[in-house]
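Entry 12.
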Amino acid sequence: MVSAWGSRGAFVGLFAGLIVLPHLLSFSQKEVAVFLVINVLVVVSYRLLTLTGEWSLAHVVITGVGAYASTLLAKRLGVPVPVAMPLGAAVAALTAYVLSFPLFRMKAFYFLIGSFAAGEVIRLCWKRFREPFGGPKGIKLIPSVPDIDIGIVDVAFFDPVNYYYLCLVVVTASVVVLRRLEQSRIGLTFHAIHWQDKLAESVGVDTRRYRTLAFVIASFFGGLAGALLAHYLGTVNPNQFDVESMVYVLVWVIVGGTATIYGPILGVVALTVVNEIVLRELGVDQARPLIYGAILIASILFLPDGLESLGPKMKRAFVRARERSDRGGTRG
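Predicted 3D structure (tokens):
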């Protein structure tokens, strides 16, 4: 009972902290908080694909597909932004479904390289065609989320605080859905395919179908993150979704861990804090790739299961220390 109340209290405290957080930050830090919340959705959606044992280098590009699709729907076709966002995410999911036919003929390293090639083809199309993608400069003056004005309530979403709360609601709902999905029979099948794909096939599981399902769902939520980003920045271009951005996503996920849904969240939060508070304040932001690389190597060497494993390790060490102390007291 105490443990249940403790977990509930920690959750309530965390949620209260997230609500209060933007009011304690400077303007630039508020914008960082918006990007952080969006990145949480990127890494959590990416983790869903890793549950089947596959790692993709196209996830950031798929996020860009959601951004471009939502932008074109809103700017060129006049679709309301709240409708364009989920439609853009659906286009990202459809793109993933089409890519799944060639990509899932490959596995492991070959899938990784194939996904990189597929992503680069899409990104280079954005750079090559000025119509409708805007070429290398991308698309500007993207419609923003419309303000809410119902008399006593007037919410303008160009304000980073209000957009932060919008993203927090969308991302929280998405994380809950992804967590429930992982705990369902489908999620358990994903895990089974990861660890024993041949055994799963022997009992009638269509592993390719389930890998495709994970890829499509992960891409939907990744595309939703891209749509949130595009309509906040007001611009979208191919350089936002290059391989360097994908490497950062990989580092966030690996450093945080993939055993639970909270691992990637820990990774992106910890490294964002390192980047914004340590690197930027020390004026060594240009060294970020070098420092991220060092953090990644240190994590693989000393925390191969990610930051999420640190808590259980500390708990086990504390229990062992207490047991040794009790035995020493008994002998005395």
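Annotation: The two ends are 34 Å apart (CA to CA). The chain has two domains: 28-241, 244-332.
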